[in-house]
Automatic annotation (TrEMBL), chains A, B:
Residues spanning the signal sequence: none
Family: Belongs to the WUS homeobox family.
Domain spans labelled Homeobox: 22-77
Family matches, as InterPro entries: HD, Homeodomain-like_sf, WUSCHEL-like
Protein name: Homeobox domain-containing protein
Biological process according to GO: plant organ development
CDD domains assigned to the protein according to its UniProt record, in alphabetical order: homeodomain
Swiss-Prot/TrEMBL keywords: Developmental protein, DNA-binding, Homeobox, Nucleus, Transcription, Transcription regulation
Gene3D superfamilies according to UniProt: Homeodomain-like
DNA sequence: GCAAATTAATGATTTATTCAAG
DNA sequence: CTTGAATAAATCATTAATTTGC
C-alpha cells in the first residue's frame, strides 16, 4: 500500500502542513517514553531532534509536542477505562442512580442503546440502518452536536459563502 | 455499461450498506467543491443534504464524509506528485536499539528564565500555520531557543550523537 | 457474453495531531 | 499542565471496474 510512501511526504521536503513521523521516529520516541522519559528538557529535546532528523524532517517542537500529547493521552486512556468501569457499575443492582456524573455523552466504543441520550442526536442525521456500532464516536459526534444545537464554531470562518455556486438543474426541478 | 439498476440499489430503499451517490449528486458536490467549499459547516451540510435529497437518498453524514474524503484525496494527489519528484535520497537505516536509554533519566536543571523578547525568537521557528500567539510560554521558550538552526538532516553532525549523556545537562550555566 | 477473480475507487471509521481555553 | 474541540491523516470496508478463463 501507499502507507509508507505517504509517511515520507514530509521527509521529501515538499512543505507538508504538519509533521508526519516516520515509523523509525515513532519507534524511537516510544522507546524513550517507555524507558521513562516523560517530559524531556530542552537539552534532551535538542538531542532527540538531531538524532531523529536522520530519519526524516523533524523539528524540536515536534518532539516537544509529541511528548506532551503522548503523556496526556496515556492518562486519557486510563481515565476512559475507569469511566467505562464506572458506567458498568451503574447497572449493578447495588447502585441505583439514574443521573450521569459528569460525562454528557457515551464513551468511545460504547454501543448505542435504545434509551441512550445519543439516540436523539443520531436521529438528526436520519440514521436508520447504517448505525452499526460506534455512531457516537468523537469526530462524528462533533458534527452531530453542531447539527442539533446552534452551530457556533470557533474555527469555522464566518464568511457567508454560497452553497450552490452553480446550479445545473438537471431535469425535474419543480422548485 | 448498464449500471442503472445497480445505482438504484440504495435509492430504492433496498437498504444498501453504504451510500452510493447519483451522478447528479456528484456533479453538485464537485461544483461546490470547485467553487471553494472545502469544509462545510453543520448548517451547510444540512442545506446541502436537503438539496441533494431530491436526486436520491442521502444523509448528512454522507455529505460530511464526502467533503472530508474529497479534500483529503486532493491533498494526497498533490503529495504523491511532489514526492515523485523528490524521492531520490535517504534510505532508512536499520533500527538500532542503542539509540535510547533503558532507564529513566530526568535531567533537572534545564530551567529557563522568563525572559522577554519572545517575538524575535518566534521567528526562529518555521512558523507557518501554527504557533500563533502562545509561543511566549515559558515551556515553549526552552524549545524555541534550540531550534535556531536548520532542522534538516543536512546540518546534523554524523558523529555519534548520544541522546542522553550521563553528564548533567550544561544548560544551567545561564544562572 | 458471463461470471468468478482481481484491482481500483471511494464511502465510512479510527487514530493522530493541532489549536485553544481553563 | 490539562482538557475538549476540531481537523487531517491513516486505515478499514464495500462497491464499481476490469481482467481472465471458459
Amino acid at each position: 500500500m501507499e502507507t509508507v510512501v505517504a509517511r515520507l511526504s514530509n521527509g521529501g521536503g515538499g512543505g507538508g502542513s504538519r509533521w508526519c513521523p516516520t515509523p523509525e521516529q515513532v519507534m524511537l520516541l516510544e522507546g524513550m517514553y517507555r524507558g521513562g522519559l516523560k517530559t524531556p528538557t530542552a537539552t534532551q529535546i535538542q538531542q532527540i531532534t538531531a538524532r531523529l532528523s536522520l530519519y526524516g524532517r523533524i523539528q524540536g517542537k515536534n518532539v516537544f509536542y509529541w511528548f506532551q500529547n503522548h503523556k496526556a493521552r496515556d492518562r486519557q486512556k486510563i481515565r476512559k477505562k475507569l469511566m467505562a468501569m464506572y458506567q458498568h457499575q451503574r447497572f449493578l443492582p447495588s447502585y441505583n442512580s439514574t443521573c450521569y456524573p459528569t460525562f454528557p455523552i457515551q464513551v468511545v466504543g460504547a454501543k448505542i442503546e435504545e434509551n441512550s441520550s445519543c439516540k436523539s442526536m443520531v436521529n438528526e442525521w436520519n440514521v436508520d440502518q447504517s448505525c452499526k456500532k460506534v455512531m457516537c464516536e468523537c469526530s462524528f459526534m462533533t458534527v452531530m452536536m453542531m447539527e442539533s444545537t446552534s452551530p457556533y464554531s470557533t474555527r469555522v470562518p464566518p464568511k457567508t459563502l454560497q452553497l450552490f455556486p452553480t446550479t445545473p438543474a438537471p431535469t425535474s426541478t419543480s422548485s
